[in-house]
Amino acid sequence: MVNESRSAPPRHRLRPTRRGRLVMLIGAVLVLAAAVLVPLLVLGSDEEKAQARSLVIPEGWRASQVYEAADKALGLAPGSTEKAVPTAELSLPDAAGGNPEGYLFPATYPVDEDTTPASLLRYMVDTAVKRFGADHITAGAERNSVSVYQTVTIASVVQAEADTVSDMGKVARVVYNRLAQDMSLQMDSTLNYALKRSTLDTTTGDTKIDSPYNSYERKGLPPTPIGNPGEQAMQAAISPPPGPWLYFVTVGPGDTRFTDSYDEQLTNVEEFNRNRSSATTG
Fold first, then answer.
1. In which domain, by residue range, is 77 found?
2. Coil, helix or strand for 265?
């Protein structure tokens, strides 16, 4: 974090995150190792099975991306799936306030001519509610003194921020450590969500936006999940490893540095900036 008393702050502020990596995958048919096959409907004849189309929802996709992919898979006009949300009778927790963000479970969904936006959304949400309502998730949330819905929110941040699966637990621990110390999270992924984008670069101006998702200006968790986390991110959110870390930055592919030292974080961020500059000019 940049000391606010400095008279000439740099253009890009220091942050505890790896600068908001959020992989934006495009297309409805993707091969995803962690995807789970969910039977949306019971297919009868071989001909029916052959006619079925697959919709893959990758881990970390935002609801807006899910809606767009569903519209394409169902051959509907843009916006059709999103418009179905209020009347789809989704089994969301009360804390969600009718917003399915975080509960559109990442999986592979078969669709056919009988599939509707409402039926597709219901199955995604029902799958998430079942998985997130498991005893070990509830126990983990209680152990961490948060609700299950807050755990899903933390998992969505972990999904967006972690460079690798092995980093997820440490990222979750950073979140809990900063909450425990009443520090703002300062996660770029929440800014990206508010600004409806995905970028590695965050400006000082970005950190001043008026949004409940601005985790630089507002303490605590964002009001909703910022994407739809997978099971590995949820596992990290309920059982993060112990550690004192307060900062992290990915200086290069597969090289995320975690620390509780502000000075060490400064050094790591400088290395990140050098690597980023070299990649841009190379």
1. 50-132
2. helix
